[in-house]
Amino acid sequence: MPLLQSIVHRLEPALDGARLDIVSAGDVHPQGSDVMEALVTTLNDTYNTKPKGWGRFSADLEEVDTSFAGGLRRYLADGSDFTTLAQHLTEQLARALAEHLSVAGYLLFAHQRQGDTDTLLVALVHQREGIGINAEHHAIPAVQLNTRQLTLAARINLTQWQQGDAQSQYVSFLKERGGQKVAEVVAQWLGVGEGLDAPQETRTLLKAFSDYVEKEAFDEEASREKTDALVDYATDQLSRGETMTLDELSALVDERQPKAFYEHIRHADYGLAEEIPPDKRTLNQFRRFTGRAGGVSISFDSHLLGNSIEYDEAADRLIIKQVPKQLKEQLKGHD
Question: Where is the signal peptide, in residue numbers (predicted)?
């Protein structure tokens, strides 16, 4: 992923404990740095696996020069200085985080391009103590960046934003459990109104898929193939930090009738957006049902529910219609 511009500032608590001080970089990071590109790639990979909030810039703030969106617009429109943009945004964030002085570290801004898509990644990275080996082969203390832990981060799909798609959720930001307050501060700093609940949207999509498979009465093999197609697509989009689109998904779910699943969603009025941010936890729960209690352990693929496996909620019973051969032999031989 080509790195067009990048810069790193440091946020650290002031001695009086009343604010966050900024230790600024003098200029952007030199271009063509393999180390910086590797760092940004690693941070992207980490960010893609984290729970996120999704949304769009508030229309009321997009034209305000002092806002996040306003600064970005000037930078993209007239090529204004990336250093000035990053400094201005860092100062705003430092003020917003003044009540959360434990939130300190290296704040990285990276304008990157992949194919025809430009994005801006912002990530606060912390250091951790480690051990290294020096030239004399002696163990020595070594400080390194903890690229697997992010306190706050956000990514803006600049291309989608500039295209002006009214449905696009082109801003995402870190929203982990226990970090709700920081997420709120970041959303306010970005000037974003959270538009979609990723877990809820993903659950609704999976419900629509289950209804579609049941309505079409696919056999077990076809159901498995379609389930795998959906989950594989969602997982791939998740790994790339991108949303799922209903058109693409519909074509993958049923290649012979590429619009069938899409039409099912629209006619049944599930209220789904055209683009849906995938939620990792929800997807993992959908692929398999598992449970263990009182010496009984059960696990089965989700597509089997309603076919060879039935759940009677009223009677609290799970009915297995096709007992696995190996288990059947064990049961037959049991006295």
Answer: none
Place of tokens 């190996």: 326
- Tell me the C-alpha distance between 8 and 153, whole Å: 14
CA distances from 95 to 86, 142, 143, 193 (A): 14, 31, 28, 20
Whether residues 91 and 187 fall in one domain: yes
**Tens of pLDDT along 63-121?**
777 889 999 999 998 777 899 999 999 999 998 888 766 778 999 999 999 888 899 99
- What value does the mean pLDDT take over residues 8-14? 90
Burial of 270 (0-12, 13-18, 19+ CB in 10 A): middle
Q: How far is CA 269 from CA 82, 204, 250, 273, 274, in A?
A: 44, 11, 16, 11, 12
CA distance 331 to 335: 9
Contact indicator for 106, 37 with CB cutoff of 8 Å: no
Cβ(181)–Cβ(188) below 8 Å: no
146 DSSP β-pair partners: 126
Q: Which residue has the tokens 């590429």?
A: 258
- The owner of tokens 């006295």 is 335
Let me know: does 175 contact 53? Beta carbons within 8 Å.
yes
The two structure tokens encoding residue 281:
């936890």
Q: Same domain, yes or no, for 303 and 241?
A: no
Instruction: Say how many domains are in the chain.
Output: 3
At 123 the pLDDT is 96
Q: Could you tell me if 154 and 296 lie in one domain?
A: no
